[in-house]
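Prompt: May I have another protein with tokenized structure?
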Amino acid sequence: MKKLLAVICILVVIFIGMYIYKTNISRSNISIVEVNKIQEFISKIYLWEEISGEALPKFNNINEAPDLWVWEVVKKNLEQYELTYEEIQEKAIEIFGKEFTKQFPKQGSEYIYYDESTNKYLATGIGLNELEDLFFIKEIKRTKRGYEAEIVEYLEDYSEEIQSSEEDDNININVDINSNTDNQEMEYNIYIRNLKLETIITTKNTESESSKIEKIKENIDKFSTKIVTIVENDRQNVYRKCKMRQLGQVKFVSFLCRKM
């Protein structure tokens, strides 16, 4: 009888250990839904280096962030492009949280100008170069109050595509409209650069996105990364703190935003 009880106790201990192990594993795993939410948020605030020198600039508090970057983030997330002053301000608080205290300039900004005839603000486009600012999420870790996401930043140079398009415009080709010949995609190089504008990888436009990312991972030490810490507070806002690592340099950026 004692032996039977001992066996039962051992089995119970093993069962509890397995349960705790499985629970910890499930808590450490990140679901695809969570990944998509984190990706979606970072995409909302990730702009272009033409705006402020960085797609995601460095600052200790959202109210210390460059004005041009702040209002371009707001403009990027607008549902319409003719707004009142109050609508612009509300959108900024929606993105950056109630701690956001910057006031949109009454006279308008560089890319959101004031129309006196309608008493509204009109969002305009901006001229971008052939470099596309991109990032991918390398790793996500769950913390007690949220997540830590490490992102890798890179640039894709499409200058060869632009050059090829201009050359095509100068060539007259007679095409039979009844022809069943399929249009073939022109192949050209895409140069993947780091934030120092150094060309690290040359790929083709026909390569898949996953193939490009794998090549970047093989040269990961040549690219900059940010550690984005996502913490939910009691007011359903999210505090995000980013630590940037680039070729040995360490810098910090933090900001407040609404919950995803």
Observations:
- Residues 2-28, 171-177, 234-239, 245-260 have pLDDT under 50 and may be disordered.
